[in-house]
Amino acid sequence: MSTLTEAAVESAVRELTYAEAIREALAIAMEADERVFLFGEDVGVYGGAFGVSGDLVHRFGTERVIDTPISELGIAGAAVGAAITGMKPVLEIQFSDFVTLAMEQIVNQAAKIRFMFGGKAKVPMVVRLPGGSGTGAAAQHSQSLEAWFAHVPGLKVIQPSSPHDAKGMLLSAIDDPNPVLIFEHKLLYKTKGHVPEGDYRVPIGKAAVRREGRDLTIVGSSIMAVRTAAAAQKLAEEGIDAEVIDLRSLRPIDFDTIAASVRKTHRLMVVYEGVKTMGIGAEISAMIAESDAFDFLDAPIVRLGGAEVPLPYNPVLEKAAVPQEEDILAAARRLARGDA
Amino acid sequence: MSTLTEAAVESAVRELTYAEAIREALAIAMEADERVFLFGEDVGVYGGAFGVSGDLVHRFGTERVIDTPISELGIAGAAVGAAITGMKPVLEIQFSDFVTLAMEQIVNQAAKIRFMFGGKAKVPMVVRLPGGSGTGAAAQHSQSLEAWFAHVPGLKVIQPSSPHDAKGMLLSAIDDPNPVLIFEHKLLYKTKGHVPEGDYRVPIGKAAVRREGRDLTIVGSSIMAVRTAAAAQKLAEEGIDAEVIDLRSLRPIDFDTIAASVRKTHRLMVVYEGVKTMGIGAEISAMIAESDAFDFLDAPIVRLGGAEVPLPYNPVLEKAAVPQEEDILAAARRLARGDA
Amino acid sequence: MKADTDTSARRPNQRPELAAIDDETMRGVLRKMHLIRKFEEAAEASYMRGLIHGTMHLSIGQEASAVGATLALMDEDYILSTHRGHGHCIAKGAEPARMFAEFFGKENGYCRGRGGSMHIADVDGGNLGANGIVGGGLPIAVGVGMSIKAQKLDRVAVVFFGDGASNEGAFHEALNMASIWKLPILFVCENNKYGMSMDIGRAMAVPNVADRAVAYAMPGVVVDGNDLPAVAAVAREAAERARAGGGPTLIECKTYRLRGHSKSDRNLYRTKEEIEEWRSRCPIRRLEAELTAHERFTPEALMTIEEAAQAEIDAALDFAKASPDPDPKDLTRDVYAD
Amino acid sequence: MKADTDTSARRPNQRPELAAIDDETMRGVLRKMHLIRKFEEAAEASYMRGLIHGTMHLSIGQEASAVGATLALMDEDYILSTHRGHGHCIAKGAEPARMFAEFFGKENGYCRGRGGSMHIADVDGGNLGANGIVGGGLPIAVGVGMSIKAQKLDRVAVVFFGDGASNEGAFHEALNMASIWKLPILFVCENNKYGMSMDIGRAMAVPNVADRAVAYAMPGVVVDGNDLPAVAAVAREAAERARAGGGPTLIECKTYRLRGHSKSDRNLYRTKEEIEEWRSRCPIRRLEAELTAHERFTPEALMTIEEAAQAEIDAALDFAKASPDPDPKDLTRDVYAD
Ligand SMILES: Cc1ncc(C[n+]2csc(CCOP(=O)(O)OP(=O)(O)O)c2C)c(N)n1
Ligand SMILES: Cc1ncc(C[n+]2csc(CCOP(=O)(O)OP(=O)(O)O)c2C)c(N)n1
Ligand SMILES: [Mg+2]
Ligand SMILES: [Mg+2]
């Protein structure tokens, strides 16, 4: 994949936004493989609702960057049909909330076809799902629904938090012979970070230890990995040494990395934006609580998830509905100091 | 609501099937309240795919027992519209797997309308969802998707395991001013049990302790509550004294009942048919692991959930994919004897 | 609609659609169209100045379909609206002050600041809500129709949706059910030529959304959506049929949104010329011109109406700004009813 | 379709649809129709005897639409089938032995016993699967069409669905997309008058599903679904148009299922008389009668074909029964591809 050419050296300092990193991954995949195509609502000349596809239609033409009618169920099904007959579709669902219209095709068809057919078909499709709150878009445009899909065998679910991973994981996803859902937090699109040039892969199913620490383990996913990393800096100043794990992959979950960390720190906190109840934190907590890492726990496992409420429009309420850096700090302090 | 009339005394021995109990609840509700109506695919003269509505169309007419076209999204939306304008619709989704087509209306509309409108509307609708495996209906007709809905604020989710509770909880659901989803296991429809006559209510949000015990707590939901109760009998013969909790309600979850039991038994196992990962067991485990009941745990929390696989058609594989009584027995023995 | 008693509405050479709207009603029509326009201009300005967060979808240029389609409605009739719903909301009688308050996320907004632009509802006023989901209101309207029928109410429901929404499965399922059950519903498609950036000519193979009514054995009518009297006439007829048990109608108002889809739209998919061309067909100025041509209103009288609307909007904006914020402690209030 | 060289197909007074099918092809047609009928009768009997679990949906009486609609297909063309899909599967060339093996949940069934009746697929043979979800195959067909176009293949896709399925939103979205992109798809509706218990007359307001093609500017054709040559002719024309870039066609085959919807059906929604009346229109006997009337086949020749089919089915059933069961250790195999 990536070789150490001059370009790579130069790229060591290259910064892109998360949206640009995704676009670059799409361009690389489309250039390398004719079977890859992008489709969805307004991905063409509009450039995507969040500007992710940008100018791709001009580079690859309208046959490979395809604007669709507003028909989420239909386009999800079209992805399935294209995938099982030799193409590698990348579908954008304009806001992840609209995947509610496409569940049938994703869950009953894409996830199950290979198994139902006794292994006689593959469904190599990628669904890109901009999600999350923080933009004032209210209850029907701000959800974090990734936990649903982590419950579905046959699917893979990823949630990169950095431009680097967004590119590398999307390239892995496009290469994967299974349906992969990639949840992209809308607030991340404009965040910048180092992104190497060319083709490289970040594997699906591996979490990343963003910071080593001894006092407690904080697992964060998507934007919560970013907020957690920021919080950990401040905690360090206070003398609390947090190990920060960026989950990245929700199905499969990288149990080993989390368990190893818990065995070291003896305290676990999981931070996620989705509604707390039945959110991804429940699974991580349960995985640890049923494993032999349980014996290493010195305190209850803390989940910091979204409030039990549809996302409110009012910006103050909206912020209050999902974990903010202050909330992570406060919860981490309680957990580390044992007064949880 | 039930008063001790002669009928009630007689009813003390009356047995009905689960399906009959539901039908009786529907009849009582429709008789008592003109606003209640039943609709769905083939609920009329066919009597429902599982015979649940039976002769109701002959008793209440085609204006109140309404056959619909095969349009799951549409009928779910119709339920929402009827509910916010003064009716009390009870919708049957023929197999719960087809709710994948209706997620938009249930999750984005029904669950959120009240909140989004600042409390200015109510959505008193009930959705009945026959689910579960065991009938050889394969991957698209056997799922247990209830965990998804337990993740959605604004919804209530119930899963009665006995004819008695099916009737009493459905009556509570119809009376509830919020959208309530009732997951009915297909294998339960023909099971029999005592069902009092007349109107009585089993509250939403309360678990039931089916058997008291000291050695471990087993929480089961829906048919798994039945299998767990049966397993507990055998465990007792082996000298293992299991406390059996029938979950009944998945949103809200009756944390207090489970936590009290864990404080007593110090061991917890959760049995459910849905896919293990991100299933309801994850939430129960996490709730306990983050509470002060954590300190009472003497062993890791065991989850016995469905295998990570679409439901297979072959009957041997199908059984192997979800917990059976033997699996509960084996897991309970391991947990009780400390070799888990 | 007191056309019988109002002599001014009987001026010679008026087309019947115009004559059918008496002066008092017409004053209300003009007031509402101006309110919508000025409400959205003010909202846009507030947004630009960073006073409102989130996004909003402006219907500037589409005022005639909102006001025309609801003109025959009674207070107790229902509407279901869309993401581009300010016009529908005002047309059905909502107070701009409480709408602005909602935009500003205030406690006395229509949704107590929880919904914002995309979810404004005025349930007491018969507006069952804007909808953030394209086509989301269509199946809900079916249930409203069922409700009206079951309760034997003399009501109708108007459900608005866009050309883009007519490609959603929800459209198909809803129109089919409304038709087989003969529900009292007006399906009002505001065809503004685009679903976001997607030209209707690329998104569907038929020239008119109304052509799809055939698939449901439902009357389908195309009307100039920038021609208020024409829209009102078509809607009135459909509402009468619906009330008489004749079932639903699909009405397609051909119109145009003069603003971008939302605030992030760079208008890459259409030409300046096209926008200018449609600007010249402004439904408000067009109606005013026709009214003065027929000497039903003087330019001064029209100006008075417009100025009053502007004053109303200015006051509404002040009201909203001065309104209290929600208490964060109430975060999870109203998730459930008890 | 060697009508040019086959003299027997040129007997006088034959309607062109019949003449278009030469004797060799016709033998194949008859064989397949018998195979379907006998396959399902045997499956039914096995089910009754408790040898097969689950449920199954029989297409007895509908054989002409399955065989007719696929007659013009090449091996590499695709079909997408339904819950009532045995006929489609056999028509596209699947082996009854491996289909039975699937029913019995055996390791050498088409889906290694994982899918069962409702999910039989024969991907190598171009059958992309039955579908347990009503209308589930329709959007998938769109993707298959996109794939064919992108890969510049000379293929078509036939997607079967029922009258009931045409009320699903998926129908609408799929037909619209297929039409705007001119995809090489035949949408074949097997209208057997009922969606489970729901009479089509109660489920939709138009008399024909094909009437809905108008909404997509797509040709819509109604054909007697129990008339094999007629179905074949309509499908051939549609397939030729599709291959030539002319886009999709909606074909509605009016037919009838002689068995209940599934094994739990008590037929409360229809009369015995109606069933008997349709039984007399059996597509197999009807075709045979026409062939003997035109002296293209003798009754004895026809009997030979039927008996051969029966023998094939008997052997297939034996094969299936003798096949090995899956190993439970393989439970989670094939959930993911590597
Ligand atoms: C189900 C769904 N899909 C996509 C969107 C994003 N979206 C919002 S408005 C819009 C365009 C809608 O077009 P149309 O129905 O013609 O209404 P208009 O905006 O032109 O008034 C889109 C794609 C959405 N809100 N909901
Ligand atoms: C989405 C969905 N809804 C409902 C069902 C249950 N169901 C299976 S077949 C059927 C009737 C289908 O009618 P039609 O499309 O006419 O096909 P037919 O059975 O008549 O061949 C129903 C309601 C299903 N399998 N999938
Ligand atoms: Mg539009
Ligand atoms: Mg049918």
UniProtKB/TrEMBL annotation, chains A, B:
UniProtKB keywords: Oxidoreductase, Pyruvate, Thiamine pyrophosphate
Pfam families cross-referenced by the UniProt entry: Transket_pyr (PF02779), Transketolase_C (PF02780)
Gene3D superfamilies tied to this protein: 3.40.50.920, 3.40.50.970
CDD domains attached to this UniProt entry: TPP_PYR_E1-PDHc-beta_like
Domain Transketolase-like pyrimidine-binding: 16-191
Keyword presence, Heme: no
UniProt cofactor(s): thiamine diphosphate
Source species, domain of life: Bacteria
PANTHER family in the cross-refs: PYRUVATE DEHYDROGENASE E1 COMPONENT BETA SUBUNIT, PYRUVATE DEHYDROGENASE E1 COMPONENT SUBUNIT BETA
Protein name: Pyruvate/2-oxoglutarate/acetoin dehydrogenase complex, dehydrogenase (E1) component
Automatic annotation (TrEMBL), chains C, D:
Keyword Oxidoreductase: yes
Names of required cofactors: thiamine diphosphate
Residue spans of biased composition, Basic and acidic residues class: 324-338
Alphabetical list of Pfam families matching this protein: E1_dh
The entry's keywords: Oxidoreductase, Pyruvate, Thiamine pyrophosphate
Annotated organism of origin: Chelatococcus daeguensis
InterPro entries to which the protein is assigned, alphabetical: DH_E1, PDH_E1_Alpha_Subunit, THDP-binding
Organism superkingdom: Bacteria
Keyword Oxidoreductase included in the entry's annotation: yes
Catalytic activity: N(6)-[(R)-lipoyl]-L-lysyl-[protein] + pyruvate + H(+) = N(6)-[(R)-S(8)-acetyldihydrolipoyl]-L-lysyl-[protein] + CO2
GO terms of biological process kind: pyruvate decarboxylation to acetyl-CoA
Entry function: The pyruvate dehydrogenase complex catalyzes the overall conversion of pyruvate to acetyl-CoA and CO(2). It contains multiple copies of three enzymatic components: pyruvate dehydrogenase (E1), dihydrolipoamide acetyltransferase (E2) and lipoamide dehydrogenase (E3).
GO MF annotation list: pyruvate dehydrogenase (acetyl-transferring) activity
Residue segments, region Disordered: 318-338
Protein name as annotated: Pyruvate dehydrogenase (Acetyl-transferring) E1 component subunit alpha
Chain ranges of the Dehydrogenase E1 component domain: 31-328
